[in-house]
Structures are given as structure tokens and as C-alpha cells.
Amino acid sequence: MTKKIFRSMVITAGAVLLASLIIIMGCLYEYFCGVQEQQLKDELSLAAAAVEQGGADYLASLQSDRYRLTWVSADGTVLYDTQADAAAMENHAQRQEIRQALLAGQGESSRYSATLLEKTLYCARRLDDGTVLRISISRATAGVLVLGMLQPFLIVLVVALVLSALLARRLARHIVEPLNQLDLEHPMDNDTYEELSPLLGRINQQRRQIDAQMQELQRKRDEFDQITGNMREGLVLLNEKGVILSINPAARTLFRTGSACVGQDFLTIERSSDVSHALQTAMEQGHSEIHTEREGREYQMDMSRIESEGAVTGAVILAFDVTEQALAQRNRREFTANVSHELKTPLQSIMGSAELMENGLVKPEDMPVFIGRIRSEAARLVTLIEDIIRLSQLDEGVEMPVECVELYALAQETAQSLSDAAEAKSISLTVTGQPVTVHSVRRLLSEILYNLCDNAIKYNVPGGRVSVDVAGTAEGAAITVSDTGIGIPAEHQARVFERFYRVDKSHSRASGGTGLGLSIVKHAVQDLGGTIRLDSTPGQGTSIRVTIPEKENE
Amino acid sequence: MRSRFDEQLALLNRELIEMGALCEEVIAAAAKALMEGDTALAAQIAPRAGEIDRQERDIESLCLKLLLQQQPVARDLRQISAALKMITDMERIGDQAEDIAEIIGFLQGRSGEECAFVGHMARSAISMVTGSVDAYVRRDTALAREVIARDDVVDEDFRKVKATLIDWIARRPDDGEYALDLLMIAKYFERIGDHATNIAEWVVFAVTGVHNGEELT
Q1: Would you call B14 an interface residue with chain A, using a CB distance cutoff of 8 Å?
Q2: Is residue A209 pLDDT above 90, yes or no?
């Protein structure tokens, strides 16, 4: 813009200068020509008067370089010429000015010299005696004049151009400066040319629109990031070429990558052929699913094609941790297998005894032994089924009434009910501590106490001790059941809470345990939101401490 | 024109990663089959090695097409020529995994666990292949150099395996065939380590233009 303004100003200045020079030159030239012609005529009348009086002598006495006087007789013969030999000159009768003078008394004409550099003006007058006196003067043509003026003219032109260039530049800058300093961030705050207001208004409006759209976009993106950021599932969005468009933090952790992978091929973060194939299947068929294992955890990846107006625009990969489900499934399968096995063993024993009796292979005196065995095995089955029912009730998560329970009294009740079993192994069962009231589920607490004490008696040595201690602590009520039994070796301590897990498989039948007791305790404690701590030394005894917090009333 | 070239380069990159992934998988499968004496798994390796061969031909023809049609220079040329070299090494890795699988067939269900260092060696070789492919994927020259350095570990393992097997033959001359088979397998793992080293060197070249400390471009 500055350039354009500058250029047009300079061109204008040059053109004006040139035009005015030409016009002025033209006018002046005309003026001087007129003056000269007039002078020529005056000189001629003076000379004519002198020639009429003095004749050729006057002409001869005339000393003038500028004027040339020619005296011509009426037939055109040159009588005298101030600048040439008259005798050598041709007849002048046919010259235009002479002819005019002979006819009308006055005549004039002008002729260019051979080189066109000069123009000669002629003026003729018939004298009284019929001869003609002619005066002539040479003058430079307009072109020569212009040529002569070229140098000063050029100097003026250069000076004028330089001056106008300087001025134009300043002016152009001056005009453009406010434009350059326009604050487009705040278009309406500008105090500049009035002509710009509509433009600025428009810019302002568009700016506001863009701002609003940007905010909307940002808001949506934040929303999306917020949602995907807090998802536990991994989410990856790919475009149709498999380039990552978006990846949430969970997926980044899963694929062990950073946010820099956005814009790169999905292959760069996960290249196993199973996943690649699944992705290809999803792209072709719309959906696929795959299970993979990473760092000991099992993940399921669901891949779906994204379509928009019939064209594939990308794919979405949703990965979630299914370790728990897989584990639960495995546990369920194991549990079913264990239950079947545990149920089958006493039944086979019952069937065996019954078959022997049926076939009459049992002597009458041995009958009570066999019947006793059938009864005890049946009793074992009942205990087992009861335990399974309890566990499945806990699994079901049936809502149980929450009430105030006095733990010390409950422990004493439990000890009372187990006193027969304790006496049978001559084990002393004592309850110590102080009354603690806890807001909790009575049935579950009773299960915990019963199973812990039952285990402590079962896995004890004859003449051993079992002590139950009830205490109130900051975390809630604490029940500690300690025994002087056989203890649990360290390598088994983590697994004793598993269903049907037994430390010593060969002794389990003798002790009469089902392998479900501690599992029930664990489940019940979990339901009550408590914790279990197990301390055990093989051969010296076991101490299990259960902490039960106040259960809140919902 | 340029965008089509970029697209083809991206395709080359993708195919190369896929081929690398396949190599990782076959060698991992070979190692697993060896350690568990799983001949059924070993039998599955040959078809996958065949897939690697097919992929090598595909990538090779893609590279040649790019070289002829696009006449790449500088960085692009480096990437394509490095790819041409890398696929040769990857193909060799696939072949060697196939060879290992063949020998596992001769072991008649016996696993490689009987010789302690073979397992360690297999794991080192796998980690080298994975590392070299990772280095390519991330254009990570530091990782590539680490892979190159790790080759010494595999070589050292091979030396230990050899010593153990010599001892084995001395103690149980009747079981010499097993020892020799294991020695062959160990040698193949050692070769796989060398190929992984080569791949890593070409990764360094593709990124920096320097191969084995020598400016090639």
C-alpha cells in the first residue's frame, strides 16, 4: 500500500511537471513569435523608408547580423542583399512573400532551413518605385529551444521528483501507519479512519463468532478428555488409516506409551499380530473382540468400526481389565469341581457300607460300626451342605439386619455351644476381655466367632488352649482367637482363606473340617468391611485377629 | 506427488513393523516350544516363517518400486535402503526360528530346561529382537545402541552353554545327540542375536545416516 501510494504520487508529480512545462513553453513560444513578427514589420517599415530615401547606399551602410535585407526589383531580380552577392542570386519573383508584396503591397512567409533547426521569417514590402524590400530573420525552432532547455528542465525534474518522492514517502507512511497499528484483537477500540469502521465491525463480529466456536470446541474437547480421562477402561480412537486420533490415560498406561503417540500409526504402540488381525477384522466386518494378557492381567479389547454416511471414518478400541472376572470364573469352576468331589467322598463311603450290609457281608455284631459310619458320613455331608449354603448366602449378598451386638456375650455363647467339642479333645476354651457393643450384623459375627473357635479346637493338640479376646479399639471391635495348635506353615498362610484349601490334606478327614470355615470367616469379615490378620508359627499355635468397624445404618 | 510418496512410506513403515512383530512372535513361540518341549507348538512355526518370507518379498518389491518411481534422496533414501537391509535380517530370524522348531522335533518332547543357560539365552535373544523392532518403531537410536551392546550378553551365554554341554557329553556320553541338538539351537539363538544387532545398526543408519560409525550418505 505504501508503495502504491508512493508510486502514484511520484507519477502524478512528474506528469504535472511535464504537462505544465509543455504548456508554458508553448504559450511563451507563441508570444515571442508574435513579438518577433511585429518587430520584423516595424524594422521593415523603417528600412523601407530609409531605402526609399537612400537607396542601395543605405543598405550598404547597414551593419546587422541579425537582420538580412534584400532589395528586389519589380521583375524579381535581386538588386542588393546585405549578406550575399546580389549578382549571384537567382530571380526572386516566385518567392511567396515577394509575390504577395508585388500584388498587395505587403507579404510574408516563413521557411524551414534544410536542417529544420532554424526557421526563417520573411517580410516584404513594395516600395513606391515598385521594387520590393524584404527583411528576414532566422530563429531557432521550438525543438531546438526545447533541446536547449533540456538541461535546466532535467535538473528541475530531478529535484521535483526527489522532493515529491520524499514527501510521498512520508505521506504514504503517515497514511498507512494507523492501518499498520490497528489492534485486530480488539477491533472496536481502534480510533482510526472512519472508512474502516464497517471493516472493523465485520472483523469484530467474526472474531466473536470464532471465539465462541473455539470455546465450544474447547469445552467439548475438555468434556471428552474429562470423561475419557477418568475412565478405567482404555479408549483409543483411530482414523481410517489406523492413525491414533485420541488415546486416554488408561489406554496410555495399558500400551505403555505417552501422549506423543497421537498422530502415529497404532502399530507403533501395539504390533502383536493378534491385535492387528482383530483390528483388521473390525475394519472389515464392523466389530471384533480379543483377549490379551499384559503384565499378568487379562484385558478384553473391543474394536468397532466407525462409519459416517456409509464411509469408514475410523475405529474405536475399548480395552478393559477382565482379570477379576476371569479369576471369578476360574474360582467358580474350581469351586464346582471341589464341591462335587467333597460331596462324592462321604457319599461313596455311605454307599460302600450300605452295599456291604445289603449283601449280608457284615456280621451282626459289626452292624453298629457300619451304621455309625453311615451316620457320621451323613452328618459330615450335612455340615458340608450347611457350609455351602452359608457361603452361597454370603455370595448372594442378601441384606441382613443391622443391630447392636454385644460381642463379649456373643463370644461366651459361642464358647458354650462348642464346649462339648472342646471337652472331647480336653481343650480349655476361655473368653477374656470386656463387653464391646458394635453396630453390626449379628449372624455374620456369630459365624465368624463360631468358625474361628471351631478351627482353633479342630486343629489343636489334645490338652491345648483356646482363648477368645474381645476388645474395643480405635478401628472398631477386635476379636482375637488364639490357640496352641499345630499352626499354619508360612507358605500356606496366604491360601488358607481359599475355599476347600487345606494345609494337610491327609488329616482333613480326621479333623472333620470341610475346608470352608476360614473362607466363610473371610467372606463375612469382608461383608462387614473389617480386616483379618493372621499370625502363626507351625507347632506353636495360631492367632487370628479380626477387626470389625461400626456398620453404618443405611 | 509428495503426498502419495508419503503415503507409500507410511505403508512401508507399517509393513516393516508388522514383519518385525511376526519375527518377535515366531522366535517367542520357538523359545516357548523349546522350554516346554511342546512339539505341537513347534510345528506351527513353519507356516508363520513362510508368512515372513512372503512379507519380505512384498516389502522388497515396494522398496524397489519406491526407488524407481520416486527416486528418493537423503532421509527418504536412507529409510528405504535401511528397510531393504533390515528385511533380509528379519527373514533370516524367521528362518532360524523355523530351524529351531525343526530341531525341537528331534528332541522327542524333551525340553531345553535341562541345560540352564539355553533359557536365559533364548530370553536375551527375544529381548534383542523386541528391542531392535522397538528402536525402529520409535526411531530410538539410544535403544538401538543398547541392543547392539546386548549382543555380547548373548555371545557370553553361548560360551556358557557350550561349556555346559561339553561337560554334559563328558558325563553322559550316551546322551550326546541331545547335547548336540541343544548346541545347534543355542547357535541359532546366537545368530538371531547377531541379526537383531544388524537390524539395530540399520535403525541407527536410517535415523542418523551413520552405519557402524561410517558416514554412508
Answers
A1: yes
A2: yes
